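tmp note - Two component transcriptional regulator, winged helix family
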Amino acid sequence: MATLLNIIVVEDHEALREVTVQALRGEGHQVIGVDCAEALADQLGVMPVDLMVVDLNLPGEDGISLTRRIRQSQPDIGIVMVTARGELAEKMDGYQSGADIYLTKPVSLDELTAAIHALARRIKRPAYGTPVLRLDVHKLSLAGKTGEVGLTAYEAAMLGAFTRAPGRRLENWQLIELLGKTEADYSKASLEVQIFRLRKKLAQASAETQSIKVLRLLGYQLCVQVEMI
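out:
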């Protein structure tokens, strides 16, 4: 059985975007279409994203820049670049920016679907631990099978932000901003202390040991399932 994915199609040609979105939905995937990179920011928090189909020639930020930025922030996401540019140097630029697959227009829907199916075999969603932990941001508490643990306001805000973030990933600067600080006046060592303390609270509430993992040179990822109440 094919892996069903959460997909975003970034394509400024309206008719082509709609045809692609409908075709992929017909395969059972959950799909959102946007017309530019700038519109993508409004959709990234709607659902965790497994794969993106990106046109190279976009208004505003182009597909190369977008792909490079997404690859840096979400290294495990699948990226299919679709473009009319078919020169070898242009393909090399696409792959070097972070694209997994580079398809030259016109692309048949069968070819695009086959590429996505091939890429889906290597895409693995994070394996979230059990049992579900319940975060109450009003009571500042985290409840699990071993009982209820009190949280600081920052710990509750940080855990809530992880829960809402695409892929449950947050970059260092995002975590620092939650404190009302900037990277200039808040050290990475101080952030590591906060993460250590949150891991300890998660463990007390019955989470697995590897509840938050380090994303090298980027930030952190929550690896347990947390439900906000």
